[in-house]
Amino acid sequence: MVDQNKQQPDHDSRRRFLKYSGAAIGGAVVGGVIGGALTRQNGKNVADNAPVPSQTAPVPDFNQATMFFTQSQLRITEAAVERIFPKDDIGPGAVELGVAFFIDHQMASTWGRNGREYRMGPFNKAEPTQGDYQSIERHEMFTMGLQALQTASMSKYSKSFFDIADEEKDAILTSMQNGEIMVVNGITGKTFFNLLRILTIEGVYSDPLYGGNKNMLGWKMRKYPGNQMAYTDIMEKNEFVVMDPKSLRDHFGTH
Description:
By secondary structure, the chain is mainly α. It folds into 2 domains: 11-48, no CATH class; 71-222, no CATH class. It has helices spanning 2-21, 30-39, 71-84, 99-108, 138-157, 166-177, 189-205, 217-222, and strands at 182-184, 187-188. It has a two-stranded antiparallel ribbon.
């Protein structure tokens, strides 16, 4: 009898464990019952003190990062392109659309190094109808143009180009456009300005894949449909149909 009495507490303990663990009904609620029993100690619910999960933070645009420019060159580019395509009541300007990053990616690409172009001399002065043919590469000419903007700003206003007033930026860019500022021997500011203007427009309206036209806002301002797969459902309509634009990414299948 003594030995049986000694074993009774162990038997009762096992019964209590099976009851609270849920093992008696197949063990399916072990975690839930034990966890509930533990969190309700002394009449308190531990979950009441758990931190409230914060809202999901917006996903950053990893495409907006420099691949070629220094930070100073990026700021000069942003200041220049914003004067060519400024923000107004119609929509965002070049900076908000990521145009400077578009240009940065182009300078870092094969195109920026004239990689697929004939690069042998002679490098003679071309006729106005023939365009420019320089011995230096495109990315070199562009960075020299940025330096020319900075030099002109420091010389005339004793400030960096991105720190001067908008009308002062316009004055320097106008001098560039008129060829009054020399970029490098044989290349005037006109050549640089023309390239800057073309790249600005391309950055506003190209597919966001290339770094500009952020969130397709450039297309939305023009009511441009972007990269649609087909227009068969609207091609016979007489009225103008506004469509939500689609980028190349919209056609990327999920896996």
